[in-house]
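Re: export button greyed out
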Amino acid sequence: MTSATTTSVSLDVRDVHLAFGPNRVLRGVDLSVPRGATACVIGPSGSGKSTLLRTINRLIEPDRGDVLLDGRSVLGDDPDALRQRVGMVFQQFNLFPHMSVLRNVTLALRRLRKLDADEAETVARAQLELVGLAGKANSRPAQLSGGQQQRVAIARALALRPEVMLFDEATSALDPELVKGVLGVMADLSAAGMTMVVVTHEMGFARQVADTVAFMDRGVVLEAGPPEAIFERAEHPRLRRFLDQVL
Amino acid sequence: MDPLSTLWETFFDWDAMREALPEMLTVGLPNTLILAVSAALLGSVLGLLLAVAGISRSRWLRWPARVYTDVFRGLPAAATILLIGVGLAPLGMQVWGPDPYPLGILALSLIAAAYIGEIFRSGIQSVEAAQLEGARALGFSWADAMRLVIIPQGIRRVLPAWVNQLIALIKDSSLVYFLGLVASQRELFRIGQDYAATTGNESALLLAGLCYLALTVPLTHVVNWIDRRLRNGRPATASTEEDDDDTASYAATEGDRR
Ligand SMILES: Nc1ncnc2c1ncn2[C@@H]1O[C@H](COP(=O)(O)OP(=O)(O)O)[C@@H](O)[C@H]1O
Ligand SMILES: [Mg+2]
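Workaround output, generated via the alternate export path:
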């Protein structure tokens, strides 16, 4: 998977604020992910984790604050161009059900990267191979297990050679026996040097793979640090209470 | 003669039917199909525009689409056909001459567009927001995401309703006889009517009715068949990856299995 990683860049989120009407969902979020590092974001439901990921690739525009890739603000960029640099994987996969697996992966390569049909197919098949699904290229998403679908979604994002990858509870919708395969792909990607932000409830994954773990609560990062510090020496009472509940 | 056999003669005069049949098949049927199919195509193009305008964020698109839909769905088809066929006749005269046939197609198309627009809109709106988000996250613009991902899925979901609209068009095409077509342009109903008028016998009209049923009844079964396939999904054919264009070419396949 090394080829996917050669261009990864650092990510900085600075004092990001966002409100949905009166609901102040992000209230000054800071997060720094050095080039090639993996940050896991944990925290209770409703604390703003998904919203944070969506402000990073500007599916939602932050009200205030800044997002930097490689030290440069991306808020003035063309959002469509930015999203080609930032891959995102969703809890519900969001594959296109009316297209084959292969076409799910080639669509953006052809339309956005302007590869011709053969080039796109070569890239897509190689990427599917890396997630262990070379044999499923002609299937429809609905014919695959949830775990396979999520790996297709990862392949689809990686095929565009993103510089940063965002994962929003990528394994939460999966049956327990399928979780491992997907986490394995994500761990490989992390080891290969992709810059990643991973929102997850898989504390084992966070402990083993993350360089940084950030605990979000009510729209702020309450505590962040290396996994040992977060899991063994949590300072904030709310973090300790959260860990007591999930571990 | 007893009343029953008179009744029988009125509707089931085989000779009268046999006499009308050739013209029914060589003139009436093609004209009915031309009117219905071209109105379905033009109506679908206009309907898609109306559907997209109807879900637009701009009220300057939403509003006109709404008004158009309300007006053309609210008027009786016969009134619309007459209004357009007569009202636009001077304009048609300048463009293609005195022939009312194109105006008939136009009127049918404009009516169909209002219904098809609503059908498409409901289909497009039924596609989960996550699909749009998935496409946008890959870097597709809103327009490309709609065109490549959302609209094809939305339209697939409402294909049964679309075919129902085609059935309605086949029936409504009988109304263009108002506009005064020349002999070679007459559709099924008009030919039946003409024979009935000259013979004083309704059998040719009944024959026209049978022709309509021969078109519409199979289509209702197509509706049911598509409906079933949409519901159950179907195994993907080992799809020959379409060399080029993505969207329209795949038949309905997504099931709601997950
Ligand atoms: N599109 C939206 N419109 C309005 N409110 C939203 C929207 N998305 C999320 N929210 C609200 O923002 C808050 C945080 O949601 P989210 O970021 O999904 O939290 P998490 O991912 O940590 O569970 C919740 O109160 C949720 O209701
Ligand atoms: Mg969430």
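The interface with chain A takes residues 130-131, 133-141, 144, 148-149, 152-153, 156, 233, 235-236, 238-239, 241, 243-244, 246, 250, 253-255, 257-258 of chain B (CB under 8 Å). The button fix ships in the next patch.
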